[in-house]
Every structure is written in structure tokens, then in C-alpha cells.
């Protein structure tokens, strides 16, 4: 059973602090292994990637060529998928694409009062690597969420890596890759795949940015290659925080809480409500539903270890608390969510009203499901088209306005002891 | 003397690759020291910060209170600054502020064809720490460049840390802090300051994001606290790449190259030109100017070790090369820069035309001088107002449109084996 807290009880603040500080990361120490693998891939290229892949994924490929997924394989995979599933995937793709197109920033320049031209030129990253986990966590929805924004941004080359342990690949992952416009697919994973994307090999040209979720080895490898390439966030276990008033169907709230809990034993589900009755009813509903949930073992462990039901005096207090948690997902299951929205400060995504379960955003809502975890919504945002473009700032002076602002630059360069800086301005002032 | 390359020579591609691959980082191994300091600050708070500060900065403070800079100290510092310098600083501040206000993103929501509401809510990071180096590299311009965008973004609390070795503080740094709206200033630096900002102490409340340049200890500490807080980029040594046609004053180009070289022995200055004559003339002008430059030692070492003059057949080829270097600063010193701009793909900032020396952007241009180095302009952008805000995505369904897109979500949840996800949607479909 989850922990139950009430703002009326003594020691509430301490309990909240303990909950905020609870460590949910499984900190496997894999960094030294990853360092060696990366070094090996950087120096030996294809040969190293091939060896690690055969070893870790129990494969027997003789060359990197064999690890490249062919068009025929993709078509064969797509052919075996039921039409209803493909249609659902296409709906998700189209809605994600449509929403992410609205996120494209526009380049602009303008002249200020003295005629200095300033601006920003947005351009797409040229080549992106997308990591897709193998096995059970090989989700087609994640392929769409990572690839579509890159494609919309204008990335020319999108390289997908996905391990195929025992030579098994999820056909839906291949279908999602084809649908969303992946350029190349390799059946490789782990730190060796991250290394291949970052440094390049004889077969795989290097990319400029690597995105996508992975296990501890993948995360450690991404941290290590950061700088050589860009990376997205390092995703932690999933979270949901539901702010609910008394007028909720407790079963709806319960299943929303369980939809995060079923992800991972270290996922976290929190209900904050101003209703003691709802708190009690949801607690019972969770237990009831756990008896029929296929992934009940995982969900129960998460709920027991990290779940929480918190009652507060009013919904404003609920928002103050929610902002401290900075949850990945925030549901506002209340009568008047628009009254609470302006009080929302830190959250990866907000799901507004009783008819917007978080899972709709995981698949077909159109927004991205790659969101900041572990309270990082205090300072970061979810994946969007913006993560696949970069901004070059632009500055253009002419002799007249350089003469107006140049002397101040010379003064500041002098006091900072950077004389060549000053000279580079002053040498132009008398022309 | 810098290396000279010509696209006409055999082996040109190999030489360019070697230049691209040259390591300019001074990789001091400080990580284990930093780990211990951070752990100490996290567990012992003020006491640890005080001890490290007294030790490393040769101070004798008895409490953290003594390390907090008072309003009186700031006013005394400002009072001793010449009016001309303060005016130059104010001009820089106002121009930076004005430009960064244009970067503020706007929240929006919209309804799609079936009435699903989607959107993005931008909010400011609540508290930001700004690291300012002490000693010689204590630049007031950097204070403005890091603080003003945070202030414009709406950050409520901006905490500046700046070490004061031997109890010496640069008054201009204090003036810039006051001018730009810093909330609190502490005379602390190094990993201990980064730890205090990230974890908080009895005196210093924790922040959500830390920005600003620092030495190897500061960079290592920022890498380590990343996740607990957000960080800006890890800045490497400075770079300039000048694309120039034949009609340039070689002295202007030479001093622009030297304005980066004087920063750091591992800075890099590159000229790419289609004119053999200009290449020769700039080479001579650099040598000539080095004889009279105060920071000639630093500049000469940088120029000799990492400088390059590259001649190519035409300016289009120059842009192709420049995109491979992805320079922090790109100057287009050519007759028709607008013809080259559309070919620019990777650069932190572009300075357009002969009357826009890079140094104008360091101080008074209005754009930010914190820019991606070490080829990271391939995947990242300079500092802007955007780095101090974060986006919460918004989704709102109603019973009707949930009924339209919900079944596809249920289908996808089923194939991914996440039944609670599916249930959270289907339970709402019959209501």
C-alpha cells in the first residue's frame, strides 16, 4: 500500500521532504565497462561493434553489413502486422507530426533603433541517432516520439539503432521507423551502438546528436559521449501526479495511477486531493484493480514503495505541492481545471480535465511523451522539434552604427585587459 | 606561425581532418577531488563551504554571513568606477536586455480539427545560480551575458557566486551584478560554490539551474550536479573562423584573429580565403601586430599551435569547410555576405560584413557571447532567454474526441503490453 499523508497531521512538511528526496534511481556502476567499450569502438570501429553485438546479443553476424536492416526485412515486418494496429500507429504518427510542426521556430532578423541588424537563424541538426531498446521495452510509440520531431525539424539523416537479442526484432518498431522516415537501421545496442553513432565506424557515419531511452549502459555511454555529440535528457523512472477534487470516479483515478506504476518498480504515482472520501475510495480502487492487472507485480511494487495519497485543505495547496514535485505528468481531474492551470509552474506535461488520461498523451494526443523526470521539470522541457534545431545568432553593423556603439566596446575591452578585442573595433572606427 | 593549407595541395582533406580532430582541451583530472568536495558540501553545508573557501581562496571568514556581499560593499564598489566605464557597461546592459526580450517564447494553445486542445505553457525557472570566475578572468561582460537573459525570462531569484582570492573582488563585476538584477552574491567559488548552489546550505537556498564559465574544477562539478540541477553548456576554449575575400584590409582580419588568440593559449583562429594575396598579407599582419600586443605571449602560442590560414578555390568552398568546423564565431568579411549566409549551417554566431568585428558581439552588440565551442554548434545553440524558461506541454480531450482517438491508444497500449494504459482510456470511453 502507498504512503498516506495529510496536511493536517504534524510532521507533514518532513514527510513531504522525505518523499521529495526519495531516490528511485537504480545506480548500477557500469561506467568503467562503458568507458572501455567506447574506447574500443572509437579505435577499432566496425570490428569492435560486431564483436560486442555477437557477444551481448547472442548473435553470429560475420560483418556489419549483416547488421544493417534491409528494405526487404522492413517490408516483411510490416506485412505481418494487423491492419488495425498499423492504422493506430499511423493515426499516432500523423497527430504527432501535425503538432510538432507547430513547434518549428522561425528565423528572423530585425534592425534596432540605430540600424544594427540582429537576429537568429535556426537550422536543423544534420544527422541524428535514435536509440531504441530491444526486447520487452522495444516500444513503437517511442520510435515515433523520437523520430517524428527530428524529421519535422528537417534532419536529413536519421540513424536508428536497436539491439536484436537472439536475432529477434519487434516488427512494430520497424514499421514505426519506416512510417516516420528513418534513413538507416542497424541491429546494434548498448554502449557499442552509442559509440558507433558518436564516433562513426567504417560502415556507420557519425551523427551530431543521439536521442532515445536505454538501460544503464546506454545512459552511461550517452553521458560519456556528450560533448562529442549532443544528447537528449537522461530519462529516469516515470511519474504521475494526479490533482483531483471530490467529484471523480475513483476507478478512473486509480487506473491512471496504475498506468505509471505498471512501467517500472521504481515508477512513482501520487494522488493529491482535497477530499478524504476520494482518497479512501481511490486507495480501495487501486487494490481492487491490481487483482486483475496483467503487470500487477510491477505495479504493486511501485505503488507500495513509491506511491502516495496526499490530502490537503484545498486545491490551491495541491498546486503548490505539485510544483515542488515537478512531476513528469500532471493530471488535473477537477471541475474547473482552468482555475488551477495558472498556478502550474513545474511539470513536464499537463493533462487537463477528467477526460484526458495521461496514456492518451503516450500514444495519440500529438504531444511528445519524452518528458523530464526526477523533478527536472524545474529546469527542463520535454522533447520537441526544438531539440533538433539550433540557433545561430546574427549581428551586422555598418560604419555609422559601429561608430556609435564601438567606443563603449573599446572601453569594456580595455578594463577587461583584452586589447586585441578593443583594437579590432577601434581599427575600424576611423574608416 | 600558424599552419597554412591550400585546397590545391595533395593531402588537403587529411590535413583538414587533422585540424578538425585537434584536441584543445586541457584535461586536468580533477574529478575525484570534485566528487569529495561536493559530497562534503552536500552533507556539511555552510561549514564545508566556509572551510574550502578559507583554504583555497586564502580567506579568514568566520561565518557564511561574512561571505555574503552586502549592499554597502556593492555601492562602495560602484562608487570607485569611472563614469565612462559605467556608461559603457550600461549601454551593453541595455542592448543585451533589449535583444533578449525578443527571444521570450509565448505560451499558446489551439484546438485541432476534432477539438483536442494542445499547447505549450512556458514558465521561468524559479531560481538560477550564476558562476563568475575570480581573478583575471572575472569579466563584467560575462555577468551581463549570464544574468540579463535570466532576468528577462522572469527568474525570480538569481544567486551569483564569485570567488575573491585574497579577499579581492573586481568592482566591475559587482556593478554589473547590481545593474542586471542579481538577488544575492556570495564570495565563494570552485566546486564548493557549485555544490552550495545545487544542494543548498543553511545560508544559501538551492537553485534549479547553474550557468556561467569556470575552471576545470567548476566544469567537473557542473557535470556532476547535472540532473540535480540544470546546467548550461560546458564551455571550451574560444574560436573564430573568418571567411574573407580579397578586398579586406589585412590588418583588420589579423586583429580579429588575434582577438580570439589572446583569450587562451588553446584558443583557435582560422582564416579561410579565396585569395592567396590576402592569406599572405594577413600572415604578415599577424606577426606585425603581435609585436605590439600586451597579451602577445598568449596570442602567439595560440596562433602558432592552433591557428590556420586556409586558401580555397571559391567562397562557396569556404562555407562548406566552415560548416565542418562549426565555429563558435564566424565572420563573413566579404563583399556580398548575403550570398553566403544561406550556406551557413553550423556556427554559434555569425558576424556579417567587414564592419562587424566579433568583439562587438562580446560587449555591446546585444546578442549573447556565451556560445557553443569545440564543434558543438553542430547540435547546440548559444545562451539565450530560452535557457531560463521551460515548456510544459498541454493536452485536453473531451468525451467526444476521446471517443475518436481513444481506441487507437488502447490498441497501441495492448501491443506494447501496457494494459493499465489501455484501461485508463477505455474506462472513459463509455461515459
Automatic annotation (TrEMBL), chains A, B:
Which residues are involved in binding Zn(2+)?
260, 263, 362, 421
A Gene Ontology biological process noted in the UniProt record is: L-histidine biosynthetic process
* Pfam short name (any one): Histidinol_dh
This protein's UniProt keywords: Amino-acid biosynthesis, Histidine biosynthesis, Metal-binding, NAD, Oxidoreductase, Zinc
One GO CC term on file: cytosol
The organism's place on the tree of life at top rank: Bacteria
Is Aminoacyl-tRNA synthetase there in the keyword field? no
Q: What is its EC number?
A: 1.1.1.23
Question: Hey, which pathway is this one from?
Answer: Amino-acid biosynthesis; L-histidine biosynthesis; L-histidine from 5-phospho-alpha-D-ribose 1-diphosphate: step 9/9
Positions contributing to NAD(+) binding: 131, 192, 215
- Show the catalytic activity: L-histidinol + 2 NAD(+) + H2O = L-histidine + 2 NADH + 3 H(+)
Positions annotated to bind substrate: 238, 260, 263, 329, 362, 416, 421
Give the first-level EC class, as a single word: oxidoreductase
Q: Which family does it belong to?
A: Belongs to the histidinol dehydrogenase family.
Q: Which GO terms describe its molecular function?
A: histidinol dehydrogenase activity; NAD binding; zinc ion binding
Cofactor annotation: Zn(2+)
Residues of the active site are: 328 (proton acceptor), 329 (proton acceptor)
Q: In its UniProt entry, what is this protein called?
A: Histidinol dehydrogenase
Cofactor: bound how, per the entry note?
A: Binds 1 zinc ion per subunit.
Q: Which organism is it from?
A: Pseudovibrio denitrificans
Q: What does this protein do?
A: Catalyzes the sequential NAD-dependent oxidations of L-histidinol to L-histidinaldehyde and then to L-histidine.
- The question of whether Kinase is a record keyword is answered with no
